[in-house]
Write a structure and sequence with these properties.
By secondary structure, this protein is of the alpha/beta class. The chain has two domains: 21-199 and 316-454, Aminopeptidase (3-Layer(aba) Sandwich); 203-314, Alpha-Beta Plaits (2-Layer Sandwich). The protein has helices at 25-32, 35-48, 56-68, 129-150, 169-175, 228-242, 281-302, 321-334, 341-352, 381-385, 407-413, 416-438, 440-454, and strands at 72-75, 84-90, 94-99, 104-105, 123-124, 154-160, 184-191, 198-200, 203-212, 251-258, 269-278, 305-314, 372-374, 390-396. The strands form four sheets. Strands 1-2-6-3-7-14 form a six-stranded mixed β-sheet. Strands 10-11-9-12 form a four-stranded antiparallel β-sheet. The protein has a two-stranded antiparallel ribbon with strand order 4-5. Residues 451-475 are annotated as: Disordered.
């Protein structure tokens, strides 16, 4: 089991939790009956592996499936061509389900437990967003069928959210007011374990810092040049020294994306891409100020010029324990992922490729203890969670011990272990949505907790400012 910071004892089921047909075996069976479609959609998204804001085929596939089920589709929302909203039902609470579908550039892998890159493929689903999209699709359709069969007033709305990986697609959707009428939001994520823990995330902001200098022959006339790469390296050195003097929960990462092409030509352009993270948005702002000052100082010291473009920014996830405890109960009812002999062998071989993998193979079938914790990742779901009470679940779509953003994650995301995990999430979210439609006491408690957590004077502010969606950031 992973060690969780700030863990607390397993929480008791809230007294107001309903024991109605919301948790019926019939609902679980109905989701199970959609396994083949979940697997087919997940595999197709996996094969396409489209990166942020370029997910045209992936977005269209999800939209076509929803339209065939009677959902009303609104395309290109928030000025993002691949973003959409799909709604079914009328009256009652509006429950949103989030669906992601972007892949990560620079990593790919076949659906094999041994390292086997696919020649010519530039991206891969190393964070399992193909499973996220497919599982959420199944959940939305299953909720729609339940609303239809029971005649329950309510609307289910699936949000197709592009570019989670560094593009903050959901932030633009929140900023555009698309969640203003949503009562509750459900989401999930691929993982190597099953959990509905109340885990928050780090706020973050990224930017590309671009240095401009003067080029000349590096041997014949270096005195005539001013190296843009020197500016980047001086900048990086100053930020690296700064790491000692920031709060320990902070995270700063960078990659040099342009640094010249020939050693004997002093580069007149260089670029470095930075991420800054902290548990609070205010903490990101404070560190960011110092990073910007370091960039200015580096340019001054190297005789270059610098400018930067903020690419994305996410608020931390605002946990709602009323909802998280409910989702934990639903996940326990669903249960974890049961491997066949072939899947177990696949998982064992995957684990052989890792250095000291955590956990055990059988963890895939278990549900982790409920806890409240700080997670060190970041997600644009954070901004959604400040717009509407939000709850998530994680399902064991990868072999226990697998890290996200790894080739091992890509491999499992393209085969049955991943598909089974997506079904676990779909079942838990379906049961969770039904509980919310049928349990006014839960709705009231979750909303009260949400309002208190935000505070009376809360005003939404995004960490990416007023910039437009960076539709070409992956080109």
């Amino acid at each position: 089991m992973k060690r969780l910071l700030l863990s607390c004892a397993l929480a008791a089921l809230p007294a107001f939790m309903s024991q109605t047909a919301a948790a019926s075996d019939d609902v679980i069976a109905a989701v199970d009956a959609r396994y083949d479609e979940t697997a087919s959609v997940a595999r197709q998204l996996w094969e396409w592996a489209e990166v942020g804001y370029q997910e045209e085929k992936s977005s269209n596939l999800l939209q076509s499936k929803l339209a065939a089920e009677g959902f009303t589709i609104e395309k290109g929302v928030a000025d993002i061509p691949t973003a959409f909203m799909a709604e079914y039902g009328e009256g009652g609470p509006v429950i949103a389900i989030l669906a992601e579908f972007d892949a990560l550039p620079g990593i790919n892998q076949d659906d094999s437990p041994e390292r086997s890159p696919i020649t010519g493929k530039a991206a891969g689903h190393a964070c399992g967003h193909n499973l996220f999209g497919a599982g959420s699709l199944t959940a939305a359709i299953s909720v729609k069928e339940w609303l239809e069969e029971t005649g329950t007033p309510g609307r289910v709305r699936l949000y197709g959210t592009p570019a989670e990986e560094g593009g903050s697609g959901k932030v633009y959707m929140v900023r555009a007011g698309l969640f203003d009428d949503v009562d509750f939001t459900l989401h999930w994520h691929a993982d190597d374990e099953n959990s509905a823990a109340a885990r928050t995330t780090l706020a973050n902001r990224s930017a590309k810092f671009r240095f401009k200098g003067l080029s000349a022959h590096a041997a014949g006339a270096p005195h005539r040049a001013r190296s843009a790469l020197d500016g980047v390296e001086a900048f990086n050195m100053m930020v690296n020294m700064m790491r000692e003097h920031v709060p320990q929960e902070s995270r700063i990462h960078y990659v040099i994306t342009a640094g010249g092409l020939a050693p004997n030509v002093v580069p007149d352009f260089a670029e470095v891409f930075y991420y800054v993270r902290h548990p609070e948005a205010s903490g990101v702002d404070a560190i960011w100020e110092r990073v910007e000052e370091a960039a200015r100082g580096a340019a001054l010291g190297t005789g270059t010029e610098v400018e930067w473009e903020v690419i994305h920014g996410n608020n931390p996830l605002l946990v709602n324990e009323s909802l998280a405890k409910m989702m934990d109960q639903k996940l326990r009812q669903v249960g974890g992922v049961q491997y066949t002999k072939e899947e177990r062998k696949f998982a064992e071989n995957i684990r052989k490729s890792m250095d000291d993998p955590w956990g055990e193979i059988d963890d895939a079938a278990e549900i982790q203890p409920y806890s409240r914790s700080l997670g060190y990742g970041s997600t644009d779901v954070g901004d959604v969670s400040f717009a509407t009470p939000t709850v998530g679940v994680r399902a064991a779509t990868w072999a226990p011990g697998t890290s996200s953003h790894s080739w091992q994650a890509v491999a499992a995301s393209g085969m049955s272990i991943g598909y089974k995990g997506a079904q676990v999430a779909a079942k838990a979210m379906t049961l969770g949505a039904i509980e919310l439609y049928t349990n006014p006491e839960l709705r009231e408690a979750a909303r009260k907790e949400f309002d208190e957590a935000r505070g009376e004077d809360y005003e939404y502010s995004s960490l990416l400012g007023d910039r437009e969606p960076p539709l070409d950031y992956r080109k």
